[in-house]
Amino acid sequence: MSRRLILPPESAPLSETVASRTKVVAKDIEVFYGDKRAINNISLTINENEVTALIGPSGCGKSTFLRCLNRMNDTIPGCRITGSVRLDGEDIYADLDPVQLRARVGMVFQKPNPFPKSIYDNVAFGPRIHGLIDHPDDLDGIVQRSLTRAGLYEEVKDRLREPGTGLSGGQQQRLCIARAIAIDPEVILMDEPCSALDPIATARVEELIEELRNDYTIVIVTHSMQQAARVSQRTAFFHLGDLIEVGNTEDIFTSPREALTQGYITGRFG
Ligand SMILES: Nc1ncnc2c1ncn2[C@@H]1O[C@H](COP(=O)(O)OP(=O)(O)OP(=O)(O)O)[C@@H](O)[C@H]1O
Predict the structure, then answer these.
(1) Distance from the CA of 253 to the center of ligand 1, in angstroms?
(2) Which residue, by CA, sits nearest to atom 16 of ligand 1?
(3) For ligand 1, atom 30, which residue shows the shortest CA distance?
(4) Is the terminal CB of the chain with fewer CB neighbours within 10 Å at N or C?
(5) Which of 39, 58, 64, 66 to mutate to test the pocket of ligand 1 (most atoms within 8 A of CB)?
(6) Mutate to test the pocket of ligand 1, among 31, 40, 63, 244 (most ligand atoms within 8 A of CB)
(7) What's the DSSP call for residue 184?
(8) 125: burial class by Cβ within 10 Å (0-12, 13-18, 19+)?
(9) Which of 101-115 are b and which e, b meaning 16 or more Cβ less than 10 Å from the residue's Cβ?
(10) Residues in domain ABC transporter (predicted)?
(11) How far is the CA of 157 from the centre of ligand 1 (A)?
(12) What CATH code is carried by the domain that includes residue 64?
């Protein structure tokens, strides 16, 4: 049984991407933690204004791969990456400063992690440090627009000066999404954004992901195959550090090409 990447060569058109523009191209990515290789020569193309889901059993390298896309692995001691990641053609490891890069490629984490600041200041933080405001009044507009875009404004508009940590888990996660979009990124990485949320809060975040893809390119790591099927247009299945299969989400869940994928989606392992 093949475990190797089954992507067609870079030049071959992928049927599921015909109408889509390429946003990110990861090529020949290998990641090592010390001597241990966690990602084995993975190449993956991410399309603009689509949600790409990364699925696979625990420890298969989904989060490690996701973190390569905004150089978050750079902060992990002993972690080494080879290969290239291009964002709109620019090599993010060679041509872009990590701070600039993370303004273009935002991230939402598994556990909602609002800063110990007010709701307003959580959202205003990024625009302030990235110098995105010419006039203090502009900030009010950015905060309101970001909270509205994250589907949270109506719930918090009367308590913007109260701590973000006082919100419910689902609201905190939407606050983190508002914080991510306040700096107007192009790509949003989400690492199991709903795993700490109840089903209602999860449904709200999933609706939000569907809306956000009109404006952003989204890559989401999820343990839930139902979630991948609901929110994504493309799905990539990882196993033991390999990318086994990538394709149109519907195809992956109805007629996967690889036996390993089939085994995982039918619950035979994982
Ligand atoms: N900071 C680290 N130091 C050493 N090894 C690590 C580190 N982070 C991850 N690994 C190892 O790299 C491999 C891939 O881990 P990763 O967290 O990327 O997988 P995952 O598919 O996201 O897992 P999960 O679904 O459980 O979150 C695993 O073997 C893991 O133990």
Answers:
(1) 25
(2) 61
(3) 59
(4) N
(5) 64
(6) 63
(7) -
(8) middle
(9) bbbbbbbbbbebebe
(10) 24-265
(11) 39
(12) 3.40.50.300
Q: Assess whether the C-beta atom of 239 lies below 6 angstroms from ligand 1.
A: no
What is d(CA 80, CA 54) in angstroms, rounded to the nearest whole number? 21
Assess: ipTM above 0.85. Answer: yes
Residue range 90-121, pLDDT digits in tens = 999 999 999 999 999 999 999 999 999 999 99
Range of 194's domain? Answer: 16-265
Structurally, how many domains does the chain consist of? 1
- Residue 42 Cβ contacting ligand 1 at under 6 Å: no
Q: Is there a domain that residue 3 lies in?
A: no
Q: What sign does the CA torsion over 56, 58, 61, 66 have?
A: positive
